[in-house]
């Protein structure tokens, strides 16, 4: 079997003025990503996602990958990551290269699953899982005034009992937002917070101490991703679990987090970290050092499908039967037609359960008409 065609499809959706979503670093209005469609001589179509803007992904793919992809056997998928580190030499580990590798990798796994008639999570060695626990990524900062409890109340009403909220704008503001979320979620719900790297280590430590009594499952990106020494300092100054990974690319960056025990949970984004093959390597490194894994998702429906298949493949280790942990996947609660409209059957997280597709490959079908609405080329 050989790949006969490959096409990069840039997508974008802009939120209306005044309705931007934000984190501690500011507001954003554009949701942009890139899909990759491959087709084989066996008639299989595979889909992948590169979580970078379309013009960058298109130029990167055409400059570095197009010639070698046509004629490639999709079953060679696990060689993509290794080849990316050595050819192109020196910049193979960049976010742009690894994002395109991610798209190629996911698309190849999608094709392989269709060829052998199995969902990807089974191909990755996972046992059959029918459902995952979605956690609601919500309580964004907004340009319009609204009661801060509203998004948490809507998430709880939809059946979520695990949520992640945005904080990182000051110690007292952080505590107020966390207190509100905990009151709505209740004592038994799982509550995570995301600082989006907006603090210095001393500021992050002070805020973490001030919210620790609200039973925080993890603090995500308390300092910028490049501030490795800051993570090390926080490990010595707080007992609350730390998480990071959305801004790390490839096994080598994740290995630093894992080897030095800088975080308790690593969060590879399947459309940036190198795809399913590299995410599996990252998960093995993490489990070897008893570090948790939970994929980061801020993607289209294709990236979400890849994250679900990956999460469903994860082993129970390092968790024991006596200390159960749910297998979770992030579900962004903001408006995102690139996630919901481009799939014939969008994922439904309501009721606190997310079904794992059992059909071959990613287990999704693309709505080509909807895709055309959001193409930017």
Q: At CATH's second level, what is the architecture of the largest domain? A: Alpha-Beta Barrel
Task: Give the low-pLDDT segments.
Answer: none
Total of domains:
2
Largest sheet descriptor = 9 strands, mixed
3D architecture notes:
Residues 145-241 form the Mandelate racemase/muconate lactonizing enzyme C-terminal domain. This is Mandelate racemase/muconate lactonizing enzyme family protein. InterPro entries: DgoD-like, Enolase-like_C_sf, Enolase-like_N, Enolase_C-like, Mandel_Rmase/mucon_lact_enz_CS, Mandelate_racemase_C, Mandelate_racemase_N_dom. It is a single chain. The protein is of the alpha/beta class and 377 residues long. It has two domains: 3-117, Enolase-like, domain 1 (2-Layer Sandwich), CATH 3.30.390.10; 122-355, TIM Barrel, CATH 3.20.20.120. 37% of the residues lie in helices and 20% in strands. The strands form three sheets. Strands 6, 8, 9, 10, 11, 12, 13, 14 and 15 form a nine-stranded mixed sheet that branches. Helix 4 (95-116) packs across helix 11 and helix 8 runs parallel beside helix 9 (228-237). The model has no long low-confidence stretch (mean pLDDT 93).
């Amino acid at each position: 079997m050989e790949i006969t065609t490959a096409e990069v499809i840039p997508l974008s959706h802009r939120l209306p003025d005044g309705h931007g979503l934000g984190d501690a670093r500011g507001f954003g209005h554009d949701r942009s990503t890139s899909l990759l469609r491959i087709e084989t001589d066996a008639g299989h179509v595979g889909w992948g996602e590169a979580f970078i803007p379309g013009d960058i992904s298109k130029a990167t793919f055409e400059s570095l990958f197009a010639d070698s992809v046509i004629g490639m056997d999709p079953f060679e998928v696990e060689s993509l990551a290794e080849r990316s580190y050595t050819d192109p030499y020196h910049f193979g580990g960049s976010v742009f290269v690894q994002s395109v590798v991610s798209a190629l990798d996911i698309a190849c796994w999608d094709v392989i699953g269709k060829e052998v008639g199995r969902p990807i999570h089974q191909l990755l060695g996972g046992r059959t899982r029918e459902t995952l626990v979605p956690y609601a990524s919500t309580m964004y900062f907004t340009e319009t005034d609204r009661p801060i409890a509203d998004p948490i109340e809507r998430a709880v009403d939809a059946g979520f009992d695990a949520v992640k909220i945005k904080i990182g704008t000051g110690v007292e503001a952080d505590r107020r937002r966390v207190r509100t979320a905990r009151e709505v979620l209740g004592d038994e719900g799982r509550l995570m917070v995301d600082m989006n790297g907006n603090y210095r280590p001393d500021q992050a430590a002070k805020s973490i101490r001030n919210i620790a009594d609200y039973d925080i499952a993890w603090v995500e990106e308390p300092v910028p991703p490049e501030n490795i020494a800051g993570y090390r300092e926080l490990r010595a100054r707080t007992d609350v679990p730390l998480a990071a990974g959305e801004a790390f690319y490839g096994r080598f960056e994740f290995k630093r987090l894992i080897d030095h025990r800088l975080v308790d949970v690593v969060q590879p984004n399947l459309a940036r970290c190198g795809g399913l093959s590299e995410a599996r390597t990252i998960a093995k490194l993490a489990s070897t050092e008893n570090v948790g894994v939970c994929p980061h998702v801020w993607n289209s429906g294709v990236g979400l499908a890849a994250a679900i298949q990956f999460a469903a493949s994860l082993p129970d280790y390092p968790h024991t039967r006596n200390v159960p942990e749910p297998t979770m996947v992030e579900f962004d609660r903001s408006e995102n037609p690139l996630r919901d409209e481009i799939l014939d059957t969008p994922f439904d997280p309501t009721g606190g359960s997310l079904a794992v597709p059992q059909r071959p490959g990613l287990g999704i079908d693309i709505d080509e008409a909807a895709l055309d609405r959001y193409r930017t080329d």
